[in-house]
Design a protein that fits this description.
By secondary structure, this protein is an all-alpha fold. The chain is built from 5 helices and no strands.
Length: 224
């Protein structure tokens, strides 16, 4: 009895580890149904086959763990090791996690399928409404064109307001600079008189130039 137990434990553990690896691989394939962009409204044959394989493997693992537990209980206290207890506990934890992962994936796939079916139903209702109301598309197109026109007008007005605000800011800056120049000039002795003389000279030069042009024009008319 002790010899059969010793040979049975490693064989059962090897089967348990192999089934755990198969479960991980099947989870990877099964999870792709949840992330598919075009999930069918009803489970496909492939999806049902993978789910059935997962259920079968989980059931087989439960049976293996039960056999391992019976083997461990049948051993005498002296030959039973803490390592075997830890191994058995670990197999149970992994099995529990895989049961929860299967439930999570099934729920995720069901939610994705429900959203797809809802969108399909909404599209069908919209198509049916458009078929029974031919003017609906025309009215929607007109509404879109009006909305686009309003958006363009809002954009132009926003740009105009921005330009006007920029001009106002520039005017304030120029006015401030002018005030500073006038204020600085008023504080320099004789600067106002110099500016006045420059202005008077420009006016005098303008009068002389205008008189010369008029004289030349009169002489031109006289000799003509």
């Amino acid at each position: 009895m002790t010899s059969s137990i010793g040979t049975g434990w490693p064989q059962l553990r090897q089967q348990a580890r192999s089934l755990e690896t198969q479960t991980e691989n099947l989870f990877h394939t099964y999870s792709q149904f949840a992330t598919s962009p075009n999930i069918p409204p009803q489970p496909s044959e492939g999806e049902e086959r993978i789910e059935a394989q997962l259920q079968d493997i989980l059931q087989r693992r439960e049976t293996l763990i039960a056999q391992l537990s019976r083997l461990l209980d049948s051993e005498s206290t002296l030959t039973s090791s803490a390592l075997k207890q830890n191994n058995l506990s670990r197999h149970r934890e992994i099995l529990h996690d895989h049961h929860r992962e299967l439930l999570r994936l099934k729920s995720t796939i069901a939610d994705a399928r429900a959203r797809t079916n809802l969108l399909s139903t909404v599209r069908s209702d919209i198509d049916a409404y458009r078929s029974s109301n031919p003017e609906a598309d025309y009215m929607l197109d007109e509404r879109r064109r009006i909305d686009n026109s309003h958006n363009m007008a809002d954009s132009v007005l926003s740009q105009a307001y921005a330009v006007n605000e920029s001009f106002g800011t520039q005017r304030e800056i120029l006015a401030s600079v002018n005030r500073r120049i006038v204020g600085a000039a008023s504080q320099v002795p004789g600067i106002n008189g110099l500016i006045g003389r420059i202005g008077a000279k420009k006016r005098r030069d303008g009068i002389i130039l205008g008189s010369f042009i008029a004289f030349c024009f009169l002489m031109l008319l006289y000799f003509k």
